[in-house]
Design goal:
two-stranded antiparallel ribbon; 223 residues; alpha+beta; globular; 5-stranded antiparallel beta sheet; 7 strands
Length: 223
Amino acid sequence: MVPTVPLPRRPLDPGDITSDVLHWYENELGWATVPGSGSGGVPVRLVVGRSFDVLDVPAEAGFAALRHRGQVRAPASPVALHGNRMLLLVAAGSADELPGLLDWLEWGGLTPDLRAIGAGGHIEAPLPPRPPGVPGPPGSPAPAAGSSPGSQGIAQGRTNPQGAAVWLRPPETGCGTAVPLPTMSALGGVGGAPDLVRLVDTLATQCHRVRLRRACAQPLAFS
């Protein structure tokens, strides 16, 4: 079999990168971007609440949750890393469900580190992943076959020393409504979509464990 060689491509300047980022999100995924973002050195930002909402958790808790969900073979969904926070994309409208869902799961106010971003919010757009063997745009590298989301995400984070958002598990391209996102089981959703209740319960458990570990690591104060 004759190997295929990708066509040469001229180096990208910042304007090219922004154009590629906007094209990927708006045309390939069908996701809205914040008007004016991506110009003047400001990163492209994604509108939240239309195609998706976001669960925002400490990265430590997020990685633990991903490991657990991998062990139970839970369906995968898009995940990004931004600094020390992990962003998990869920179905639009899920942010409004979170407070009641936490109460129903009896977590209530025990997990202040588990936050939701819904309608009216926005997040920094991670650079799109590049297809294997195709140079640019200079975003996160294409996932290696068989690699875990956690290990791939750590590798991606190391390539971005300035703390910009990176995809740990990028969304599949296509129509934005076709991306399987965690949703309430009773509401249905795209075939194979993860269950929002199980995801929230796992995240709440791991957030609580992280808080307990940090509390135990604090030195005791004596009066």
